[in-house]
Design brief:
Blueprint (H helix, E strand, L loop, with lengths): L13 E8 L2 E7 H10 L20 H23 L9 E7 H6 L4 H12 L2 H4 L8 E7 L9 H13 L9 E2 L6 E2 L4 E4 L4 E10 L9 E8 L28 E5 L2 E9 L3 E6 L38 H9 L9 E9 L2 E8 L3 E2 L4 H14 L5 E6 L2 E7 L8 E15 L17 H6 L5
Parallel strand pairs: 2-3, 12-13, 14-16
Antiparallel strand pairs: 1-2, 1-18, 3-4, 5-6, 7-8, 8-9, 9-18, 10-11, 11-12, 13-14, 14-15, 16-17, 17-18
C-alpha cells in the first residue's frame, strides 16, 4: 500500500498448528510468527522510543503501562476469534510457544519486547525467573479470552508442537536398534505462570527429528497440589468460623437443586472435585444427563439419560459452582465416579472453556483430592470422555509432585487471515501512523 494510505483491514495470514490431547484441542503459534503478524498490523507495541530499550529483568514504566494492556487485549481477542468453532479454526485455547533464544536475539524489537514483558508479568514476580532465563515458556489463553496459568493437556500439545518446530532435537527419544527400541528422552522445562513444569517425550511417531511427528506420548510433572483456601483461592467469609476453615475437604456446597460435597485444590489453577457419594441429603447427580459436546454415551459417567427430564445437566450445575462466591476466580469442576481405588471416570467443565473431552490438570486434581479423602491410591487411571491418563501422585523426595502421562496428536497446519477489528482498545489505540507502518514492513 502507499505510505499515505490507511492500514489494510486484514494482515498477512497467521501460521498456526492445531494439536489435541485426548480431544482437548489447541491452536498453537510460535512467538516469531505472532510478532511478525503484530508488526504487519502496524501495532506500536511500545509507548515510546524510550520504552524500546534492551530487555532486562526490570521493566520501565512505559513498558508496563503500554505494552502489556495492548498485547493482552490483542491476544484475548485473537483467542476468541481463532477458537470459535463456527467462524474460526475451533479450539479450547490459544497457546503461544516462546523461546528465550528468540527473545534475546530480538530484544530491541517491539514484538519480542512485548512477549517477554507479558511472560514476565505473570511469572518472574513469583520466583524471579525471567523469560530470558527460562529456555521455553508459554502464553496460554482460554477460548473465551481469559488467561490461565496451567493446562496439562495444553502442555503435552505444546511439547509435540515444539518437537515439530525442531526445537527439541536433543530431548527426543532416540531409536537404538532395528527392533524399534528407543533410549529415554531427556527432561526439559517449560516456564508456566506459577512454576516450571518438567516435561519428557516418552515416544514419538513420524520423522525421528521431530519435524514430521504426528503423535507423541508425553509425561508432565506438575507441582504439588495446594489445599489451602488462600492458594486456590477460596472465599470462606460467609461460612461459620471461616478462620478455622483453611481447607475445603469433602465440604458441602448448596446448589439450587440440592447439596454436593466437594474438595477444593489448586494445581496452578483452581479445581472443585466432586466424588459420587451414597449419602443421605446429597444430590444424586449420577442420574443427570450429561451434555459433553462430542462425547458418546458410553464415554460419559453414567451413559444413561436423566430419570427426570427436568433435572439440570452437570454442565449447569458446574456453571452454578463456577459463578458462586466461593470461587472468586472461578474453578474447573470435576464430577468423579469411582470404579476402584485405582480407576475413576471423570466429567469435567473447565472455566473459560466449558465442557471439554479432557483436562489433565483436572485429572491431577482428582487424584490429589481422592488421596486426601482416602478414596484413591496414588497410582490411578483417570478415564475422561476423550481417553485415559495415567496419573502418579509422587511423594517423599519428589515433594508430592504429580506426573501425568498421555498422548498428544497433530491435527493440521494452516494459515488464517485476521481482521483488524480484533485489535480493539487498548490495542487499536496503539496503531501507529501509516508512514511509520511502512517502515515496519508493510508493503506499499
Amino acid at each position: 500500500m502507499h505510505p499515505q494510505q490507511t492500514l489494510s483491514l486484514t494482515a498477512p495470514p497467521l501460521a498456526f498448528s492445531k494439536v489435541h490431547g485426548l480431544g482437548n484441542d489447541f491452536i498453537l503459534v510460535t512467538e516469531e510468527n505472532l510478532c511478525l503478524h503484530l508488526v504487519s498490523q502496524g501495532l506500536a507495541l511500545a509507548a515510546s522510543d524510550s520504552a524500546r530499550t534492551s530487555y532486562g529483568a526490570v521493566h520501565t514504566e512505559p513498558v508496563t503501562a503500554s505494552l502489556l494492556p495492548a498485547l493482552k487485549s490483542i491476544l484475548s481477542n485473537l483467542a476468541v476469534f481463532l477458537c470459535d468453532r463456527r467462524r474460526g479454526i475451533g479450539g479450547d485455547g490459544l497457546i503461544v510457544a516462546v523461546r528465550s533464544s528468540y527473545l534475546a536475539q530480538n530484544h530491541n524489537e517491539r514484538g519480542p519486547l512485548a512477549v517477554a514483558a507479558l511472560v514476565d508479568s505473570y511469572s518472574s514476580e513469583r520466583d524471579g525467573v525471567s523469560a530470558l532465563e527460562a529456555p521455553f515458556s508459554w502464553i496460554y489463553v482460554n477460548s473465551d479470552g481469559s488467561y490461565s496459568s496451567m493446562c496439562g493437556n495444553g502442555l503435552r500439545t505444546l511439547a509435540l508442537f515444539m518437537a515439530r518446530q525442531g526445537w527439541l532435537k536433543e530431548h527426543l527419544p532416540v531409536r537404538t536398534d532395528s527392533g524399534g527400541a528407543s533410549a529415554a528422552a531427556s527432561v526439559f522445562q517449560v516456564r508456566c505462570a506459577d512454576y516450571p513444569v518438567h516435561i519428557s517425550i516418552q515416544s514419538i511417531d513420524g520423522d525421528s527429528t521431530g519435524s514430521g511427528a504426528s503423535r507423541a506420548v508425553v509425561s508432565t510433572r506438575l507441582a504439588r497440589p495446594l489445599f489451602s483456601a488462600a492458594d486456590i483461592p477460596l472465599d470462606l467469609s460467609d461460612r461459620a468460623n471461616p478462620e478455622s476453615q483453611c481447607e475445603f475437604i469433602a465440604a458441602p456446597i448448596t446448589l439450587k437443586s440440592g447439596q454436593v460435597k466437594a474438595t477444593a485444590v489448586s494445581m496452578g489453577n483452581p479445581h472443585c472435585v466432586i466424588f459420587e457419594r451414597q449419602e443421605a441429603g446429597t444430590l444424586p447427580w449420577l442420574e443427570y444427563a450429561l451434555d459433553m459436546q462430542g462425547g458418546q454415551p458410553e464415554n460419559t459417567l453414567s451413559g444413561l439419560p436423566a430419570t427426570n427430564s427436568n433435572s439440570p445437566t452437570l454442565r449447569a450445575l458446574s456453571e452454578e459452582i463456577q459463578s458462586s462466591s466461593l470461587f472468586p476466580q472461578g474453578a474447573n469442576v470435576e464430577w468423579v465416579k469411582i470404579l476402584s481405588p485405582e480407576k475413576v471416570r471423570v466429567y469435567v467443565v473447565e472455566r473459560g472453556c466449558g465442557p471439554t473431552l479432557a483436562c489433565a490438570s483436572g485429572a491431577a486434581a482428582v487424584v490429589a483430592a481422592g488421596v486426601r479423602e482416602g478414596l484413591l491410591k496414588r497410582q490411578c487411571c483417570v478415564i475422561l470422555p476423550g481417553g485415559e491418563l495415567a496419573v502418579s501422585y509422587l511423594d517423599g523426595g519428589m515433594q508430592e509432585q504429580i506426573e501425568l502421562t498421555g498422548p498428544a496428536e497433530f491435527v493440521f497446519d494452516g494459515v488464517v487471515s485476521v481482521h483488524s477489528h480484533l485489535f480493539s482498545e487498548p490495542g487499536r489505540g496503539l496503531l501507529i501512523p501509516a508512514q511509520a507502518s511502512a517502515n515496519q514492513g508493510l508493503q506499499e
